[in-house]
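Page 47, continued from p. 46.
Same chain as before, 82 aa.
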Amino acid sequence: MSCRPTSRESLEGLRQLRQCTAERGDDCLSVVLAGVELYTSLGREFDLLEVMRKFADEMREAVQGTPTAKELEELFYRPEPE
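Result:
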């Protein structure tokens, strides 16, 4: 099993290892592996949140001052000048 915590394959391998140890009755190791799995999964979520936060900061300037959806709708549906 490769050890790249952010890869889906690594997380799946860890999950399978935890299930195997639980099935064979090694509860202590299974609990430790469950903790590692939780820690790794949360790390992925925090990485994703950080990327989203950075993207929001970068995009803020690009979208400031643009018309709202309501304003665009009003522009689109306004009557044509005669």
